[in-house]
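Regression report. Comparing outputs from two consecutive submissions.

Submission 1:
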Amino acid sequence: MAQTAKPKSPLAISIVDVGGALALTQKAFEAYRKAKPEMVSRFVFTKAPAPELPGKLKAQQDAKRLDIDMVLGGTDIMSSGIAQGIWTELFPAHAASLPNLKDILLEPAWQMQQLTKGQGCVVVYYPSGPLLEYAPDRVPTPPTTAAGLLDWVKAHPNRFMYARPANSGPGRTFIMGLPYLLGDSNPKDPQKGWDKTWAFLQEMDHGIEYYPTGTAAVMKELGDGSRDMIVSTTGWDINPRVLGIVPKEVKVQALQGFHWVVDAQYMYVPKGVSDERMAVLLDLMSFMLQKPQQAVAYDEGYFYPGPAVKDVPLSMAPEESQKAIAEYGRPEYAQWIDSAPKEIPLDPDAIVYAFRRWDEQIGSRKTK
């Protein structure tokens, strides 16, 4: 790795989180500030909705008044950002200042890195879902197949829910996982290969009252008894139970023949940051990929497991993380992660198409 030039004086670095990764990474960012006070005086963290940020960044870049140094986000902001040309190329342009990702990343995380077209850097990873999460007192026999799920939703109108896929990790994991469950002709092509999936989603729509614009609202409705069963992921199962939003006793179900649709969160640098800032950001990204910082990503299960880097066991995580996972984690996850195939999400163009078609054909009348 190239030696990083120190800035003339420590910088205030502005980081915008659009995908929730700050929950997993903020302590590691603060560890960098403590370890390298000559580089960073403070971090300014803000949050923004993923669909709104690319337009804001583009406007700042056009006006040459950029005030955002780094964006934390998932594949949704990656896709829209690549389409609008707002991200700095990190690889191969700055590869000499960053670790060799192929050597250090878990294999699925390395595959997720390929989606960025060199314009982002993986920071956390998880196998994700799709999983069903349900209240066992209200759903004594949960469905075990995709067909069984559809039958259940029809037989129990307004008791099942998922959020708008463009705004929800579990929502988009669900629609991307269905083609594998249904045996569609091409799970990677929502335009020509998802005939069974689009028909399934439209039929399921008859039993769904509305689609929230984020996952937190779905969890709240499961927790307060408004819904009996929802779409979930490993992290969205564990963390809301740790936080008390969802009762500890809810259960999860993987449907027969399911494939994990893996997920990751990335560090992006908008075009237009100064050379001095870029040097600090590259050093910061390298730091975030070190094992001690990666172990912080276990958090309270929000993105379970969390680390994108190889050989970062739970035993390396902070004590509070180990306790939370011991109490609220699920022993079946290790077996499911080992045994079920892991699929990379749709590429940026395909996911933009899938979101648009879902919005137009399924969510348009019922999203709120």
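Submission 2:
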Amino acid sequence: MDFSGRLIDRYKASFDSIEIQLSEGTSKTVDIRDGEVEDVTVNSSSGLRVRVFKEGRTLYYTSGGVNEERLNAFLSEAQEVIRLTPQDEKVYIPSSPQVYKDITELAEPDIETLKNFALLTESGAKGFDKRVKSVKSASCSYINQKTLITGTHIARKLWNKQMISSFCQCLAEENGDIQEGYEGDTVYLDKHFEPSLIGRRAAETATSLLGGKPLKTGKYNILFDSGTAAQFFELISEMCDAENVLKKMSLFAGKLGKTVASDILNITDDPFHGDAIGSFRFDDEGTEARETHLVTKGKLESYLHNGYTSALMNAENTANAVRTGSGKIGVGTSNLVVEPTEDVSAVALIKGDVVKVLDVMGLHMADTVSGDFSLGISGVVLRSGEAVSSFRESVLTGNLKDLLCAAKAVYSNTRIHGNIVTGDVLFDAMIVSGS
């Protein structure tokens, strides 16, 4: 990675700015099936992404490897080619003079350790309930990703992330009915990791759905479990993406400062969270991280910005630049944190039946412009907080605007789903179509 500085010095007079990101990663995965190793995968990868700027023009370069000769050839050719690209006076190049280095060097788990973790995942599922007949997949992975960002306007920044993850997919069977459950978790290497719990949670979902029948069509209080809620809030984060707002692809376009949700909702983009895996000190433009309050008491406070979108919208840069596979800069969340409002024990006090959604299909297809959605849902029916039956082949239809305003509680059983932190979420009565 050291050659980047040499090439920047060589070509900096030819451009207004040069920005270089280099990445190197190693990973290894062990897959288990019926107590035996099914597969072992060891990978290494590297990547190079470059942006050069001159007189409001931008040129991108991306490579699947880190190679000084190819980067030198690009920078040489770019001096002429950049003149062919469109000019944009709003091109904004964030400056970051702070030098930063944070390389963790924790002892990485060996293959035998990953194997044992995967076995614990599998046994956690099989030991949960005799109705769990098979574990289709049980795996454990380790990854170490190193990133360097530097440039004419960015002081050298170097860091890495060491993470471990496990995944389980299992099948439960009773009276000819077969249901599937799956669960995964990723944590930093120095954090608490409990692979057997991942297996148990997958098995709990599968067994909970056994014997399910379509709900009787009607209005129900809807409770998204934390995993389903995480998918929902991921969709909401896309609606806070300034690029989507500018393209009129978001319900939140033109809604800044206005009420967009129930007053119990407080949603924050938090890059400093100690456990969620989206944490960072600098975004992919080298801009120093900051906490951003997106929704406070139901009011939309901010969009998520990179340098360019902040210039276009005359807004403060929230340091949410992310690099796409093509090397271009987009917008993305760090960690999306949803503040709890009630103790989870309050679920038992809800009058009437509560439909707890454990699995949802079609949420990613919800229309973020009109807000309309139609979701296939399955889960359990709660009465006084206890599961009394299971259901499947039911459909929840509505509009995202109404769903946001129908939020009644975010419960304290907070879990981390990758970079989304939320508990179960209760919504006011909505129509579910079934039998």
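Expected: both submissions complete independently.
Actual: both completed, but the second showed a warning that disappeared on reload.
Relevant detail on submission 2: The longest strand covers residues 132-151.
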